[in-house]
Give the backbone structure.
Amino acid sequence: AVVILQASRPERWKGQAVHVAALGRMRDVPDWEAWFAGGAQRAGEDEFLTELKASAERLGIGHRVKFLG
């Protein structure tokens, strides 16, 4: 599989939500997975990470997206 990687803490201004939305548009493309490397370190980042995970599930790509911390 092709691995798509974004390395950064989960912060709204860093574009992870846009990234997850774009991956959702690729749900029918085979042989890819996405890794988000970088864990929550500041207030509010845990909540945003939870939102990102829920968005991936809602878009039907939760099994292809890994949040590595």
